[in-house]
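S.,

As promised, the alpha-L-arabinofuranose run. Input:
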Amino acid sequence: MLELGASNGRVLQLSGLILGVLCFVLVLSYASNHMLPAYTQTNPTVTFTVDASISSGHRIPSTLFGLFFEEINHAGTGGLWAELVQNRGFEAGGLNTPSDIRPWVAVGTETQVLLGTDRSSPFVKNPVALRVAILCDAEDSSSSNQCPHRGVGVSNPGFWGMDIREGATYTVKFWLRSTASLSLSVSFTSADGSQTLAQETVEVDSKTCHTWLNQSLELKATASDHYARLSLTSRNRSVFWLDQVSAMPTDTFKGHGFRKELALMLADLKPGFFRFPGGCFVEGDRLINSFRWRETVGPYEERPGHYGDVWNYWTDDGFGFFEGLQLAEDLGALPIWVFNNGISHQESVPTELIGAYVLDTLDGIEFARGPLNSTWGALRSQMGHPDPFDLRYLAIGNEDCWKPYYRGNYMKFYEAIKAKYPDMQLISNCDGSKSALDHPADLYDYHVYTSANNLFAMRHQFDDTSRYGPKVFVSEYAVTGNDAGRGSFLAGLAEAGFLIGIELNSDVVSLASYAPLFVNNNDRRWNPDAIVFDSWQHYGTPGYWMQQFFKHSNNASLLFSTVQADAATNNVLIMSALRAKNDSTGSDYLVIKAVNYGGTALNLQLVITNMPSSDKIQALDSSMTVLTSGNLMDENSFFQPTKVVPTVSKAETAGPNMRLTLPAFSIMALQLGLSSMDADM
Ligand code: AHR
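Predicted complex:
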């Protein structure tokens, strides 16, 4: 079975809920739809002719379709990064103490427990620690201030609740010191604190308690709550300090700390590249709040964290530079690092002062791919990755082309990086699609957020772009505004049309990625997004599902094709044809894709010419995947996560001359399995 759309086995792993509903959809689809849709006399007719000889087109870059990950909408912090504790180091409230420790809260009343911060942390870059004074005492029966049975202390609700599941294990780590021996209960409790889901006790004796000790526990849950909290409590009068409190599920994507079901959604798109960590997040509104790669590497306890002042939330930077490179590798994608070039939304460092930023970037490259005997390569190795990461692409800033000093600063970065790493592909922020750039670059960045009609019309955007000079990187595209809502079918439809245009122009467009990728439903800073989640559930928007239609395009052979249709039909139609290899079976297949952006079904006459004599279309290995919906503004939601998802049906009449119907307002992929004649004999 070919691997496109919702029939893919990995899609079915996404969650139990999606699995169940999807199976139902597929069964229905097979039962009612195992013949291709009816070809009627009244629909307009389109003839699509494909030259199946491999030399007819060109090889699509292996990077063409990839991912752009930005720390926006709590995409990483409280999202893809599986850390459950929010504000683990107590730094989010600033370095001046006492400070705001939210979302931490006291467990117990004001007369039972007093929480405060001071700068007694053992970590130089994270000086703030939490001081917990337990004022009650369970042992002192004469006291009027008896601690309750469950103890008192402090708890953290995570990011709008922690998803704790019965049978799963969690690693809880923290640093602790106290003025005397201490018995500290570490537990996951239900949201209201009434039920204990998992619990262990830490005992510290009076000899060692005065120094900071690293505690590490495995907690196995015996009950579930999607909105649980982590509590650290005691029943004895005491004073103790906590710092760098972390809780992670032990089961993460490839064991590297990424929330599994979210990472699997990414893996299932077979991305060719992974651009990170922003976006505006890289720039900061003010430079002081920009992403600084070196503050996000090394032990988690030594990362100061920072406030992202464009999307307005604190991040502990658990998902740092190293983790971005690691995730790219784990996804089989090439990392693309967008680095801060001394420009924020408000400031630009003058070119005569940019030298320190250039050196900082060179250090970052050394961290990613330097030898083990280099300063930064050695740190990468200590972090568990002795081999260099395959960093070949760098974006010099984000959306900064017209900001002061961009060109001067760009040239400083360009020259220094090319001198040391001549193979590095450098990406300019300036658009070269309509006129040539006035500076050297390997690629230029192109961003588009617009209405559905505009984006569909832009399927021809790169038809006339110069084939000489730098290539195009469409690193951010999406339908936004009223047409998009929180992720409408209409948006996905127009985006798919735009992407077929990119596929047809993939001799000049080398990379393309949707934006933004993720939204935590509790902190929507941007609509729409490809994947929506909260503490425990997730779904793909139509903007996610339409990307599934392109997951076999990377490295495929684009075939020469022509569409014959009347002018009105041509205004609403775009099609492509390619030949790809099925990685699991090793056999080839043809993929015919179409977006019908019009409200009328189309009769499609498919004519495949110049088929290599050794190839034969295998109807039994052929299928048709369609994404459509009853209403253009239909969206998926936590309640209906699969309202708009692709359906797959068999293509039993598949052959070199076949007729089928393109439903109104639909994305369609026809996958024609090929086998060599020899294999049949
Ligand atoms: O994708 C959201 C934002 O849009 C990005 O941060 C920025 O690059 C663009 O303006």
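Residues 1-35 have pLDDT under 50 and may be disordered. Residues 70, 72, 278-280, 398-399, 447, 476, 515-516, 526 surround alpha-L-arabinofuranose (CB under 6 Å).

- D.
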